[in-house]
Structures are given as structure tokens and as C-alpha cells.
Amino acid sequence: MNYKTYLFDFDYTLADSSRGIVKCFRIVLTRHQYLTVTDEAIKRTIGKTLEESFSILTGITDPEQLESFRQEYRLEADVHMNVNTRLFPDTLSTLKGLKKRGARVGIISTKYRFRILSYLEEYLPKDFLDIVVGGEDVKAPKPSPEGVLFALEHLGSTPEETLYIGDSTVDAETARNAEVDFAGVLNGMTTAEELRNYPHKIIMQNLGELVQ
């Protein structure tokens, strides 16, 4: 595959932050006496907004209560998230390989941009990434195409020369809505069968297949 622009999801695509995510959800859920939610259930919500995830896990639909949970989670994430996040083994070599080809590389995530950047500054040179669009940068979260379209405009890229890489059906929907090609990677909780229900160029076992 030879695209000019590669846009990546973050959680379960570039990095495994599930340990930190589960820990933060567990603290908030336990505080409010939601004691029966499993780690598996929490992991299945990764990639959705925090409000969506808390609603799925608790059944709560009241926007104010969900917003309160989100704020509590964010405070816990400031403490627990980055120290419990690990890049996948082929993340850095893949990103550097794509840049070496002259490609533009960015991240589109529901995770906060500042948290992604603060984590990656240990691993990547400053200004290595051409763009990072986080949850605080858009009005409508994925699968809205807003983040991807913003990135394309910022980078001067066209949909035809862009590949979006993610691990979830939310990512696949995002790519479809933005009318860009999609590559699925099986780093997360979503199966190949689930991803194949959406338009895709490839379903990969790992990110290294992008630069083979």
C-alpha cells in the first residue's frame, strides 16, 4: 500500500492503554457502587467517548451524571493512564518507516490530544507527527468524520491518498463516513469478522504489515 497520508487511531491501534483505562473506569464505577462490571465489558467500550462508555456500562442516560463520571475519570487518568500505557512492539518502526517514505502521519482519537502528546514525547522526536486530533478538538466524536476531515484540510491531503488505520468498528465507520480507505488491525477486542463487515483495504495482524 502506498498512500501519502496515514491517520491512526491511538488506543488498541498504536498503544495498549487498556490497563490504565480499566483502572480508571474501575475506580469511578466502584466509587458509585457499580461493582459487577467486568474488565472485559470495559475493554469492549474502548474507542467510544467516555460518556458513551459509562452509559453502556451502567445503563445511565442522564447527561449531567455521565458528564460528572467523565470528569471523575479524567482526574484519575491524570494519575494512572500514561504509566499504564505501552506501545505495541511494531508501532515506532512502522511510524518511522512511513515517514522515511515521505508520508504524512497523524493520529485521530477520542483520547485527549494533550495526553497522547505527553505520552509520545518520550518516544518520538518533537514535531514528528504531522497532526494529532483528540477528543477535545471536535464537536462530534467518531464515527463522525469531523476529525479525519479536519486533518485532511490541515494537511492538504485528499481522501483518495489517505488511509485510516484502527482496531474497532467505530474506526471502520469513521473511515467510511470520511470516504477514506480503511485498514483494520487486530490489536484490540474487535474480531476480523466484525471488521470485515465494513469497507476495508486490509485486515492486519499487526501494524508492521503497513511497511512490508
TrEMBL record:
<keyword id="KW-0378">Hydrolase</keyword>
<comment type="pathway">
    <text>Organic acid metabolism; glycolate biosynthesis; glycolate from 2-phosphoglycolate: step 1/1.</text>
</comment>
<dbReference type="Pfam" id="PF13419">
    <property type="entry name" value="HAD_2"/>
</dbReference>
<dbReference type="InterPro" id="IPR023198">
    <property type="entry name" value="PGP-like_dom2"/>
</dbReference>
<dbReference type="InterPro" id="IPR050155">
    <property type="entry name" value="HAD-like_hydrolase_sf"/>
</dbReference>
<comment type="similarity">
    <text>Belongs to the HAD-like hydrolase superfamily. CbbY/CbbZ/Gph/YieH family.</text>
</comment>
<dbReference type="InterPro" id="IPR006439">
    <property type="entry name" value="HAD-SF_hydro_IA"/>
</dbReference>
<dbReference type="InterPro" id="IPR041492">
    <property type="entry name" value="HAD_2"/>
</dbReference>
<dbReference type="InterPro" id="IPR036412">
    <property type="entry name" value="HAD-like_sf"/>
</dbReference>
<dbReference type="GO" id="GO:0008967">
    <property type="term" value="F:phosphoglycolate phosphatase activity"/>
</dbReference>
<dbReference type="GO" id="GO:0005829">
    <property type="term" value="C:cytosol"/>
</dbReference>
<dbReference type="InterPro" id="IPR023214">
    <property type="entry name" value="HAD_sf"/>
</dbReference>
<protein>
    <recommendedName>
        <fullName>phosphoglycolate phosphatase</fullName>
        <ecNumber>3.1.3.18</ecNumber>
    </recommendedName>
</protein>
<dbReference type="GO" id="GO:0006281">
    <property type="term" value="P:DNA repair"/>
</dbReference>
